[in-house]
């Protein structure tokens, strides 16, 4: 689905920052910056509609792109904006509309339909240009850590092939044939270790080890096709704990990666069916590490979920397992923020809605709006 399909929603764009400590939304009137932990509105600016608002961690720097509804907010102009001073620091202009922006403390990535530009984030000197296949949705993924800083882009318009590019070393790392159908969603873990992908079919989610471009495992989201709106790994700097997906079915899906890694071999050997099937097929058929929250939001409403925090604690029901407790934050484009506490043990999974509020009606505590 194109971004135009969401024009009827009050939220035009939503993004979390690199460590998920804050998030930004844009509406027809302007944009707002929130603290993820408290839900506090930290900054707002009502000057018109924006297609992109990207944060640099919790700093005062934003990368913003207008929606073109007024001449000063062109979708072809990237503005680096300082929220402390309320001034533009630098601007970059392009021949076609900007579809996505990613950044960290060293690199700035600008994705257009058929080109992707890599800049030095401090000097804005252009470092490289990638000629990508037509990328109408601006689909991309980025791992912000400097020691494993990768960018992932679609490498085909007819199947789900991913190009993984090393942004610091400025060279192509690998291509991964992930799906038969074109890609709908991709995400890199923050440590650059794993990449997760979903195709336009939306039934299978696959996870690959970036360093070797090999598939680690597959998960079945569901039997019927669905649009995957977002994918998010847990924040672990070592092995990933969980992967979260949201879809047009209105459900939130959690896949327990840590359990799958540690226990998939013993699970396969103890299963008659598992011993007869290839590993990739067996992983798809095994539902043990898939947990679903149904009807989290209305079906068809675009949503964006991230895993903000994951803790591992002893499982009281088993001496062998560790329980996982996670905080999962969700933005729905009809205007709401939700935070769920999710826990999973060997025997069960539990969901608890901790917070929910309307993003459109929140006002700043100190009236620091511009």
Automatic annotation (TrEMBL):
Keyword Glycoprotein carried by entry: no
Keywords tagged on the record: Repeat, WD repeat
Residues spanning the membrane: none
Leader sequence segment: none
Family: Belongs to the WD repeat PROPPIN family.
PANTHER family associated with the record: WD-REPEAT PROTEIN INTERACTING WITH PHOSPHOINOSIDES WIPI -RELATED
UniProt protein name: Autophagy-related protein 18b
Species the sequence originates in: Dipteronia sinensis
């Amino acid at each position: 689905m194109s971004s135009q399909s969401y024009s009827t929603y009050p939220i035009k764009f939503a993004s979390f920052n690199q460590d998920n400590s804050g998030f930004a939304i844009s509406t027809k009137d302007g944009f707002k910056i929130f603290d993820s932990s408290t839900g506090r509105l930290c900054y707002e600016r009502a000057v018109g509609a924006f297609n992109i608002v990207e944060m640099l961690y919790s700093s005062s720097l934003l990368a913003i792109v207008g929606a073109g509804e007024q001449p000063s907010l062109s979708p072809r102009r990237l503005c680096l904006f300082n929220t402390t001073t309320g001034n533009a620091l630098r601007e970059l202009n392009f021949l076609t509309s900007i579809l996505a922006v990613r950044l960290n403390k060293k690199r700035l990535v600008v994705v257009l339909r058929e080109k992707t530009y890599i800049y030095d984030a401090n000097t804005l000197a252009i470092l490289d240009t990638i000629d990508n296949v037509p990328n109408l949705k601006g689909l991309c993924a980025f791992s912000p850590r400097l020691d494993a800083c990768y960018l992932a882009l679609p490498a085909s318009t007819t199947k789900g092939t991913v190009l993984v590019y090393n942004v610091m070393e400025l060279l192509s790392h690998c291509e991964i044939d992930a799906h038969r159908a074109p890609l709908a969603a991709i995400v890199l873990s923050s440590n650059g270790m794993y990449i997760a992908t979903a195709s336009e079919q939306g039934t299978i989610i696959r996870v690959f080890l970036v360093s070797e471009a090999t598939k680690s495992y597959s998960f079945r989201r569901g039997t019927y096709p669905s649009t995957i709106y977002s994918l998010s790994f847990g924040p672990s700097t070592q092995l990933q704990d969980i992967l979260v997906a949201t879809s047009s079915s209105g459900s939130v899906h959690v896949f327990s990666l840590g359990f799958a890694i540690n226990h998939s071999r013993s699970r396969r050997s103890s299963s008659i069916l598992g011993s007869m099937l290839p590993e990739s097929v067996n992983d798809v058929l095994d539902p043990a590490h898939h947990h679903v929250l149904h009807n989290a939001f209305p079906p068809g409403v675009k949503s964006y979920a991230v895993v903000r925090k994951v803790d591992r604690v002893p499982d009281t029901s088993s001496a062998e397992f560790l329980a996982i407790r996670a905080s999962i934050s969700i933005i729905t484009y009809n205007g709401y923020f939700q935070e769920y506490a999710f826990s999973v043990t060997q025997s069960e999974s539990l969901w608890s809605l901790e917070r929910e509020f309307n993003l459109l009606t929140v006002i700043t505590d100190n009236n620091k709006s511009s």
